Amino acid sequence: MRVVEFKEYGGPEVLTVVETVVPEPGPGQVTIDAAYAGVNFADVKARAEGYRVPALPFVPGLEISGRIRAVGEGVEGLRPGQEVAAFLDRGGYAEVVTAPAATVFPLPEGVDLRTGATLPTVLPTAHALLHEIGRLRAGETVLVQGAAGGVGTVAGQLARAAGASAVYGVVSSAAKAEYALAHGYDEVFVGDTFPAEARRATGGRGVDLVLDPVGGDTLRRGLDTLAVFGRLVSFGNAGGGRPWQVGQPELYPASRSVAGFSILELAASDPATLRALAERAFRTVTDGHVNLPVTAEFALSDAADAHLLMEGRTSTGKLVLRIAD
After folding, report:
1. Residue 209 pairs with which residues in a beta bridge?
2. What is the rounded distance in angstroms from the CA atom of residue 63 to the CA atom of residue 76?
3. In this predicted structure, what is the pLDDT of residue 325?
């Protein structure tokens, strides 16, 4: 079978297609004939700088869709031939993927395999940011960094469905702003001036909830955007800055709070909680609250092109690799 791996860190060109043996599932695992793999910024960081890479060579890929090939000892509720989506800690850029049964999910009714590959990371992340951690209540206001990305596309729609009174986005270009406005956002700000623009839009009050995948100075600007009792949830460091630190001087004056979320850490520490979260999140697709657009599709052998597009920060929505017809 074919896999895409890298043996050294670097640009997209280090991704290579190699042949390897088809794996067999161990206890508590399944193997999946993959149809599509989602492309995530964590894959780019792994290839470029070794983010969460325990050893080389390494096969990236955190999410796939496909049909179960075989089930290992002790696996219940899953069967060969079943169409599923799976969350992985690595290895998704492959024709046959091994996955822990705890993070393999039967596809919701009416969801095809192409859309299924977009579910495992984006939907649970957006749901957790807004509900489990952000504690969004009807009538509150939300500001989302990266509003045109995969999580941003979903977060705008989920916030609207939850009764947010206004949903604001932040993006890096006018083209991305146009895309975000079509996916649940009331107003979208371009660039680093968003704190002043958000204050203007809210009559000087600020927003109740900020979702930030960027970190660094952007996170601090997000804090300045919060209303009294506002909350900020950090879920990444896409800007590559130094790890953020927040203390009493930033939080006490307006009674603000900061929390964090990593779906990778949750999968490693508590897969049962991730499973329950994912099942709640997946229902938002079948009940019509969320539309997950695939904006670009690449063949498995063209994974480097997908990384190049994502790394250029011009992509919107969700990118996938087509692994099998």
Report:
1. 142, 231
2. 21
3. 67
At 288 the pLDDT is: 84
Spell out the residues 6+ positions from residue 186 whose beta carbon is closer than 8 angstroms to its own: 166, 167, 168
**Strand order across the beta sheet in which 187-190 lies:** 187-190, 166-171, 141-145, 207-212, 226-234, 257-260
Q: What HEC string does 116-177 produce?
A: HCCHHHHHHHHHHHHHHHCCCCCCCEEEEECCCCHHHHHHHHHHHHCCCCEEEEEECCHHHH
pTM: 0.94
CA distance 243 to 87: 26
For 82-97, what is each residue's pLDDT tens digit?
999 999 999 999 999 9
- Are the CB atoms for 99 and 120 separated by under 8 Å? no
| Three-state SS at 202 | coil
Return the pLDDT at 313: 82
Q: Tokens at residue 253, please? A: 């004056």
Instruction: State the pLDDT at residue 55.
Output: 97
**CA 130, CA 154: separation in Å to the nearest integer?**
11
Residues 6+ apart with CB under 8 A from 93: 3, 4, 5, 37, 43, 59, 60, 61, 300, 303, 321
Residues of the chain with pLDDT under 50: none
